Here is the input.
Amino acid sequence: MEFSFWEQEAWFTNVDYTVIGSGIVGLTCALRLRERFPKAKILVLERGMLPNGASTKNAGFACFGSISEILDDLKSHSEDEVVALVKKRIEGLTKLRALLTDKGIDYQENGGYELFLKKDNSLYKQCVEAIPTINKLLFPIFKKEVYSLKSNDLQCDGIHDQVIFNNSEGQIDTGRMMQSLLQLAQSKGILILNNTNVISYAENAIEVTIVTNSIQFKTKKLLIATNGFAKKLGLTQVKPARAQVLITNKIPDLHLKGTFHLDRGYYYFRNINGRILLGGGRNLDFKGEETTVIAQTEIIQQELERLLEEVILPNTKFEIAHRWSGIMGVGSQKQPLLKKLSDHTYCGVRLGGMGVAIGATVGEDLANLIA
Here is the structure.
C-alpha cells in the first residue's frame, strides 16, 4: 500500500507510543498514556475492522466469579491470591464504570445466579456448604455477604430446587461499552488504525521497528495488548481460548433477568433486550478451542441449542437469531501477564476470560510500566 507524504507525517512519523490491540486493555492503556504524556503521539493498531479478540464479542457479564469458579481457583491459588484476584476484578469494573459511566455501558446490577443440574448433586452440595466460607473470605472487599441461597423460580428444567444468588453481579452492553471507549480515545487525540495486522517487530537501543501488513515504521515504545492473539507475537505463556456464543430472537414475556452460570461457569447466559444470549461449551473440546480461528463448531453449537431447549427455555418457542465467537487469552495462572519484555517493549495480556472485569486496570497498569 502506498502512503502520501501527509499520511506518513501525520500517522507514522515521530511516534512515541504504539499500542497493539484496540480492545479494553489497549484503549485504556492509550488513555492512561495520554494522561501521563499529554503531548505524545499515541498510535493504536487493530488487526480487525472492529476490535477482533473478545472485547466486542463477549457476553457482557460484569462478574468476578461464581462459587464453583472461586472454589476451582482455590485449588491452584492461595486464599490471599484468590482474594486479590476478586479485588482486582471489582476494582477493574469500578474503573470501567467511572471511565465510561453506567449509562455509557448500560450497566445493570440485576444479580447473578449459579444453577446446578440435578445430576451434579455432589458439586451442588459442595458449593452450598462453601457459601459461609466464601462470604467470610470476601467480606473485607464487599463489607457484606455476597452469596445466598434462593428458591429456584426460574422455570428452568432439570435444575436443583435452590440456586446460589450473587447480589453484586451486573451486566453491560458490550457494543455500547466499546463505542464509548473508542469515542473517548479519539476525543483525546489518540490515533487508531483498523485492519492493520502486526506481522513482526524488532528492537534496537533506541526504538522499535514495527512491520505490518501495509507499512513499516518506528516507535519509541511498543505496548502489546492482543490478549488471545499474543502468542502470534512470541508470548508463548498465553494460550488462545475460543468462546462460542449464540443469541435468540425476541421472546414475548421473557421471565429470565440477570446473569446465569451453569456447570462450573463453562456455560453462561443472560437476558438482553427480550432475548437470551448463551455461550460456552469450551469444555467439550479444550484442544479444538485452543485456536484463534473465528468460527463455530457443530458439537458446541448443538449442545448450546440443547441446553436452551431442554434446560433454559423448556416449552418456550424460540429461534436462533445469530451466532459468533471470540478469542480469550488464558494460561496456567489467573494473574494477567503484565511485564516489561525489554527496554522498549511491554505487554498486558492473558486476562483469563475476565476482560470486562480487569481490562481497565490491566490497561492502566500496562501504561504505568513505562518509567
About this structure: The two ends are 35 Å apart (CA to CA). The chain has a mean pLDDT of 97. DSSP finds nine helices and 18 strands in the chain. The longest helix spans residues 79-100.
